[in-house]
Amino acid sequence: MRVLVIGDEKRFEKYLPDLEIVEKAESVVVGRGMPDAEIIAAVGDVDVVVADAISPVSETLMDSLPSLKLVHSEGVAYNAIDVKAAAAKGVYVCNNAGVNDGAVAEQAILLMLACLRDLVPGDAAVRAGRQIQMKERLMVEGIRELGDCKVGLVGLGAIASQTALRLKAFGSDVFYWNRTRRSPEREEELGVSYLPLDELACMCDIVSIHVPVTPETTDLVDAAFLARMKDDAILINTARGEIVDQVALAKALEEGVIGCAGLDTLSPEPVSADHPLALLSPQAASKLVLSPHIGGVTEGMFRRAWTTIWQNIERVSRGERPVNVVNGL
Question: What is the model's pTM?
């Protein structure tokens, strides 16, 4: 088996699992962003393409690989892969569904706590010699505990379910909206209660986004949604930046429409210095906590992901169907 990897060579080498198929296969790694024509010229035919989650795998590239049997996303996302073209050619497209559920849930909890505890302004105050002033201000303003908050989850997939279980341990009241309501047994297991989306936005102290990017969810959190939230509410997004109207959120933070936001994802990415949320006034910026889209990229995630990838390569080499097929084959 010849395997083409589109992504970071050091990461590929670091997470190679101890499996026999790794030794048997011939692997070629090219950097993200290399044009199809250059890949085709440099690599030649392969049986498998593994691409990091934001690297495109086009119909043009697949057309040039007559032996291709499998295209595998390194992560969960596969929107950069032409799944229809792959299906038409009888090529499996697979992802690593569920591989980072717990990791992203941890990031969501981290951002909730950072917002509740004024972590970023507090850190700056201590470094500037204003520790007592900051402490006294926060004691007067009030510090909410996560266990005292009503938390609304927008979407209840795998990551949101893991987030709900962690919130349950904190003692939070957890609500959710999902296009399909879960069974009473599943709701009880996760400790969640269903609410319509508008009601969830109005009622919850923290609203956490956990839906995929689709035409229906793009800009789901717009100016109208933000206006329905409490004026001291916290918005958390560890899903995709496109789900939140970035300009509307910047305006909401400037005008005090909501209390705070904690974001692991922005749109577009990579984030430029002229992004609306990077140009906030100092007062509004103090109500925003950002992380560099690292929620799902833990060491554990990559170990699990690459083990699944190589196990799928082995399955395909034996003529078997791989797991986590996303293009209907």
Answer: 0.89
| Catalytic residue status for 269 | yes
Q: Into how many domains does the chain fold?
A: 2
Give the separation between CA 299 and CA 303, rounded to whole angstroms.
6
Residues sharing a CB contact under 8 Å with residue 80, sequence separation 6 or more, in sequence order: 51, 53, 54, 55, 56, 57
145 belongs to the catalytic site: no
Selected catalytic residue, list 2, 182, 269, 303: 269
Say whether both 41 and 180 belong to one domain: no
Which tokens in the block code for residue 74?
């390194």
Catalytic site residue from 240, 275, 304, 314: 240
User: Is 293 labeled as catalytic in the residue annotation?
Assistant: yes
Q: Catalytic: which of 210, 275, 293, 304? A: 293
Domain range for 30 is: 2-99+298-317
Provide the 8-state DSSP code for 7. S
Tens digits of residue pLDDT in 257-273: 999 999 999 999 989 99
